[in-house]
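Notes from the pairing session

We agreed to fold both candidates in a single pass and log them together. This is the raw record for the first candidate, unedited. Please don't reformat it; downstream parsing expects exactly this layout.

Candidate A
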Amino acid sequence: MGAALALVSALSYGLSDVVGGIVARRVRAVHVAFLGQLGGLLALAVVAPLLTPAPPSVRDVLWGGLSGLGTGLGMAFLFRGMGRGAMSVVVPVSAVGGVALPVLVGATVLGERPAWPTWLGVALALPALWLVSGGSSRGSSDGTGPTRGSVGDGLVAGAGIAVQYLALARAGPGSGLWPVLGGRAAALLAVGVLACTLMRARPVRGTGSEGARAGRRRPVRVAAAGGAGVLAAVALAAYLAAVQSEFVTVAVVLSSLYPLVPAVVGVAALGERLTRAQTTGLAVATAAAVLIALS
């Protein structure tokens, strides 16, 4: 059951990325991130008291808040790296780092010992995530090669993602959705503060009839960005439920397979083409997921 919930988490995260990515073509990425966290917070504020009427413990809320700070840290550095034109470096480094660090902690600190097929699946998942996320590219989107700064952004973003997963896994089994709610509140604050200090995004320009159309579509885009945040909150809730009955190592790796969803949706619905490396990554990631889920 835990593996299935982790895969639900990956699906929700992937769909969140698809919706958020589409909106970010017309709205600043920082605004999309902020609205997404706000949407997730509002949805959880309504649902959490209904599903878990008992008040949360301070410990669970604090672990959730630390998870949210990891989310904000990861997103801020991810956006900064992409703003430097280093998407082909920052995204795969953060994706692999966000998996590798929890796996390392699970094995060395938490003493987790999954079966050997699970470890084989983990070993396959790391290069698969790199390939699917675009790590085979030789340079960044602006034609420059990977720089020390862009690699550093990717590493910090990966560390933030790892903190998100590890901290949320420490919440108690009876905590319900309260840790996720606390995390969204902390993430909303972190995204706002870090985005203002680390990023200087350019405004989305639109004049004349184009600007008028953008104004009319703004409520739709705001709603879509909020919907992406709700999907991300569902993903974290599914992950939290998964780690109650599964190794952190297993739940993190399966939840982190979400880059497969935008790749598949891009081909099936948006007419995009996968590179040979991405196709290989999809195949390897599928094999890894099967190995881990059936272990």
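Candidate B (folded immediately after A)
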Amino acid sequence: MEMPQRKCHVVVNSTIEALVSALRDNPRGILIYNDEIDSLLSNFNRYNGSDESYFLSLFSGTPFKYTRKSNNEYIFLPNPYCSIIGTTQPGMLSSLFGGKRSQNGFSSRFLKVYPDIAAMPSWNEASMPEEILDEWERIIRQVDAVQPPAGQEGKINPFELFFSPAAKQRLIRWKNEVNSCVYVESESEAEKALCGKLETYLIRFCLVIQVMRGICGEADMNEIDEESADRAIRLTEYFRAMESRIAPEMEVGVLDQRHTELLSLLPSSFTTSEAVGIGKRIGLSESTVKRFLREGAREFIRKEAHGHYCKI
């Protein structure tokens, strides 16, 4: 008998083996939801050292081959698609997305939302109107009901939405006049990596917005029009602004206030004695400064030679 396939949208168990099975059984894609995204990212590379590299390629929908040694099962995923949603605390940003992950493009694959909240919201008895919830559920169910044409052996053949000439020109202007300029003027490798990923997200936003507008009766779904392109650009720039707010948290999130102050006062290149002298001015002992250089600043300071350092 043929083993039944489990259809689902949301996956909680996010080990690579479980993820591959879910992607095989759900060729239209899945969602990994982690209330605390630390539980997902902290387990990367825990067993075989390849989880993070797999997720790096999964972002681009790279075809994936997987063999289960336990039962000699061979799985080929021609068009894998997986979204990840989760939350974390600002103090965790540096350990989750800083350091190497901000340089290799891993961090920029995640769209981040960091609202400016000065105070906790007040409690009240207001609730979301039922008609709004019902309308949203109807829209999402209609999106899910859109069926691409089936190919041979029941396989799904994706269908394409092309850009209208006006939409294409709008995106080209954004690319040349905005994103390319940010890339050239930036001295941050993390910001340069973000520019590349935002171009990918911009195209995806165009598709999502056009489909949602089509479902809601605001537009056709035979091509991506200029209105959807313009909205996608605004959304892309929103996430660029969010990333700029989060960047300082990722750079100094693991340091306490005194060490952050020390790091900001150090020149780009310095010796141990210079660091000790600056530390004394702000109330840090010699042993504290040396321990910071030796153990606590690997993501921010690189040792060039004995007694000589430079800021990364």
